[in-house]
Amino acid sequence: MKTILLQKEKTRAGRILAILRSALTIRDEDFASVLIAKETNDPFRVLIVTILSQSCTDISALRAYRMLDKRIGVTPDKLSHARIHTIENSIRVAGLFRQKARAIRALAKVCDSRDLRHILREDVETARLELQQLPKVGPKTADVLLSIWGRPTISVDTHVDRVSKRLGLAPPNGKYEEVRESLRTLFDEADQTLIPLLFMAHGRRFCKALSPFCSTCPVMKFCPYPLSTHAKRAR
Fold first, then answer.
1. Residue 110: inside a domain
2. What is the pLDDT of residue 115?
3. According to DSSP H, which parts of the chain are helical?
4. The model's pTM
5. Is 144 within a domain?
6. Domains contained in the chain, number
7. From CA 12, how far away is CA 229, in angstroms rounded?
8. Residue 234 pLDDT
9. What does residue 200 show for φ and ψ, rounded to 5 degrees?
10. Interatomic CA distance for residues 233 and 81, integer angstroms
């Protein structure tokens, strides 16, 4: 029975994926980490822009990254020797600039691109653990880097968390690892690097946090959220 139910959910997940692929356009410039990876092919730079993107928009993260690169240079050597005040002033536009500046310098002191490339060649779970040993690198940041480098994992930001739960693809109260594992169970490895980008794009365009556009949502027929919302309002 469990196998049959799982297969039904995988089929539904596959249909959702196919519709989102057709309905949404994924542009590199909408995702700071993806854009910097395409521009530089440097995992250290991707880690830095991913840290900058925490709790702010990708646009602001890219502005902060560009300024940091212009004033100091986004390399382990230059950032590890930079004054913390200079880093802070360079990344103010990204918000939380004091915490992020400390995180960036701490990471720069222990990191070089050759080491990161070696980690990225490990199996996914080993690489996740090794990346999380780096200063200020948590599960989401590790998953972003691995996913961008084509490894089968799924990073879960606020959009991915919200969309997957509303679509019934993850436990309603699931924490990060529960949501990640649920999505990895439902989607094939070949599709996993695309899931965060599609779910983020869908969350930004249709499945907004406060006022989702359910009536125009391309996957509404597969989504239990509008029905559950209307039922709550009726009560």
1. no
2. 86
3. 2-23, 32-40, 43-52, 58-71, 76-81, 84-90, 97-110, 113-120, 124-131, 139-148, 158-166, 176-186, 189-192, 195-205, 225-234
4. 0.90
5. no
6. 1
7. 21
8. 35
9. -65, -45
10. 57
